[in-house]
Amino acid sequence: MKITQNNPNLISAVRQWGCYFLSLHYYIEKYKKLQFSVNDINKNYHKFVHLGYMRNNCYILAPTGIFQNFGISTSVRWEGSAYRCLDGEFEISEVKIKNTPGHHFIATNEASVLYDSLTLKERGVEYEITSRRIFKKY
Q1: Is 69 within a domain?
Q2: How many domains, the chain?
Q3: End-to-end CA distance of the chain
Q4: pLDDT, tens digit, 9 for 90 and up, residues 95-136
Q5: Tens digits of per-residue pLDDT, 37-89?
Q6: Is 2 inside a domain boundary?
Q7: Mean pLDDT to the nearest integer, 27-38
Q8: How far is 27 from 34, CA to CA, in rounded Å?
Q9: Is 1 among the domain residues?
Q10: Can you say whether residue 111 is alpha, beta or left, with left for phi > 0 and alpha for psi between -120 and 50 degrees?
Q11: Which residue range is the domain that position 37 belongs to?
Q12: Among 54, 55, 92, 105, which is least packed, fewest CB within 10 Å?
């Protein structure tokens, strides 16, 4: 996925807090062979807030509901930072950015960054994985 949070055409809430939301879209693109536009992301924001899958500040309430909307059946659980995915699992990691309040979410595969809506690694920003959201695809 090429869309990053600094895209001025994204809804303000997605630009501010949409890292988990955009990471979910990364995996939807991957598994469904789709390519989302900024307009698609904005429409999905409104749709998923309306359906109760997320709050208007992009706090994700039902990530499995978002996946199910695209025909992807999953379960999700929280794991610590040391956890490594098993076959059939994929992850979104919660990271703490050095000297920055709050947290950020990135799509990862163990130590590899698959998608980061803030492009932290490319910009040389230090961060540490604090936990992982582990999804199992059915």
Answers
A1: yes
A2: 1
A3: 23
A4: 999 999 989 999 999 889 999 999 999 999 999 999 999 999
A5: 999 999 999 999 999 999 999 999 999 999 999 999 999 999 999 999 999 99
A6: no
A7: 97
A8: 10
A9: no
A10: alpha
A11: 12-137
A12: 55
